[in-house]
Amino acid sequence: MADTSDTRTPAQIEADIRRRRETLAETLDEIGVRVHPKTIVGDAKAKVAANVDHTIGRAYVQVNRVVSDVRAQFVDEEGAPRLERVVPVALVVVGVVGLLAFSTRRRKG
User: Exposure of 33 by Cβ count < 10 A (0-12 exposed, 13-18 middle, 19+ buried)?
Assistant: First the structure.
């Protein structure tokens, strides 16, 4: 049978109780901070901000990729414009602008 007698002195027991109370008080303070509404709101804001930053970063990468792909269609590897592609697009743009100007002028007149 195991010896269940306590060989600590009353002062040691009181010191142990004091340490446990301090540890318990620290734990309760920490729990109080974690469940405080301001802490919860702050954590939620931080998560939302992180998600927004991540989403904006992904969108930036996608836009950059699209711009690079479009640029590659109109500029060769040396950076010179590909006239066989630029000229037809420019003509279409000029035609659309001309039609818009003509239709606007026709409505006014």
Answer: exposed
